[in-house]
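Problem: given the chain below (671 residues), write out its structure.
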Amino acid sequence: DAERVVPAMAATLGVREQPGRDIGSSLSDFLRPKRLLLVIDNFERVLEAAPRLSGLLEECEGLRLLVTSRAALRLRGEREVTVPPLDLPVPTSISERPSEAQVRELAQSAAIALFVERAAQARPDFALSRDNARDVALICARLDGLPLAIELAAARVKILSPSAIRSHLENQLPLPGRGPQDAPLRHQTLRAAIDWSYDLLAPALQAVFRRLMVFEGGCSPETARAVAATDELGLEAWDALERLCGKSLLRHAQQSDGSTWFFALETLRQYGREKLEHCGELEAVQKRHAAHYLGLVEAAEKILTRAPEAAPLPGLPSLEASQALWREWREREHLNLRAALNWFLEHGGDQPSAEVPPHGALRMAFALRRVWVGDLWTERREALERALEVSPDAPDDMRLLGMLFAGDLAVLQADTRRAAEFGQQSLTLSQKVGSRWAEARALSILANVALENGDFAQARALHEQSLIIHREMGNDSSVPWVLYFLGNVAKRSGDEAASRDYFAQSLAEFRKIEEAEGIATALYQLSVAIYRRDDPAPSRALLEESLAIFRELGHQSGTAWALGFLGRMAGDEEIREQRVSGDEERDEDATPRPRGAAPSRAGQDVCPGPERGGEREQVDEGPDVDHAASEAVHDPAQVHPARHGTEPRAALDQARRQLVDLADQEEDEQA
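Solution.
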């Protein structure tokens, strides 16, 4: 999907979507001051997005793009560089039985080295020798030095000798000057090599191969078994996957949790999907893929919300898995989840059947809120609104959940008009169906709209109504979030004493239910609130506890907020010491400056608030961090002496180092 190119680039670079701004503008702002080379692969699938790349290049002087594609982008300033095949020996210079010196010389060829490496994987005792060197060289030459074609041929040494492989290629591959007029010879050669590998598979294994190509980005053995229906074909999933890897038609990678992830090169994936469509299986396999991922994501939601009915499911992390493992699973499966969602959105009007679950679009869009990767609020909201459109006959309670989540997302994007519409619709529908829980949630959405509009009294009143309902119903997991919201209202209205009280109550309630992310977030806010009261020692203790929890959760933005404010605390103390000692010269260098801080509206995110129905509350996680910090750092009247054991310079240096380490870590993850 060409429309997803810019959001995907932004997500990879860690550029967060900001309320009221196009993600492309945020990406341009991020890239403009940098000197950066971005590598984009397989662009031939999204050529319609080429003008967006041109726009980025025009706006960002220091940006350079290295784009691989089977077709030219046809942009001004584009420089086409043909990627050559691997270097080859000259066949006529190779004797029938090369000398040892010639064998050593041939082994230096990149094409021959690749063949030998892959052949040894298929047959460990394989080695280049005087007996097979000429055949190997002629195989590589016949395959034009194309890496994938060489790998596929090398995999055959498990059952065929190099001379037999060479003989087959000479009889089957197109000769120069033959074949389709519009296909480059190297593409004809590669196609023939893939055809040969595919044709040698048993029919059942052929079916597994082409069905696996419906996956986006790869699959686990468990999902392969379900979607490729290996049991129906009389095959064991692991065995089929291993056999396809052995023939270089699949690749695999070990994951940090010890599991194995299988994937195909894009060329092979396109070939397999073509075969799938030709066999008339594409629609059925896509249905199975979408239905399977709907089941996975709904099961994941139950686990992540700690629902009583949560149960382990093959293909998901265990019930006891860490947040880090869940994050890795989300990142691995993100493309498959998106593909399943898009299938449901496109087939939302289909009649339910054994293969098509009822109301799949709305169920998928809502359940995904727990496992969506990144901060692509626009994509989330567009999908949810589209799901509501194609699911007019869904049960009221299901549509109600969708409206509530859409309202949350609209608030996040500062679209108060649509947020108010969703909030009011949700309130009306919740009262119609008699859902007090949903009524309380709708009141919180309307309260957040009032807060964004500056109507603090209305925001407070609506949140208080919501709090009363949650307490009456015993919704222990929602109460701390509403208290948290009330703390935000008090903070933004200037009532600092009330904000401290609400954040303290919120923290106590989060601790009761052991909600780690809520605890860390409330600790952070309470730390900032207490710091404003001229009390840095307890503030720092709270902040360090918040930082430890954010790190354990792998919560990058929370870690950045905590580190940033820790550094600013240390900067305050350092400034104070300089002023007391009369050392004014270091003042400029000692003052910490905001680096990539959250938007002034609060750097809001959608945070989990486990609850019956698994709703996710709208949370102002990163408060007026820049505003509060700049007040403390730049206003001498708010500078306080150190009241704890850590020296200010050491604390500031530590925070700076940690921020740099965090940035380096994020860059390594993105590399």
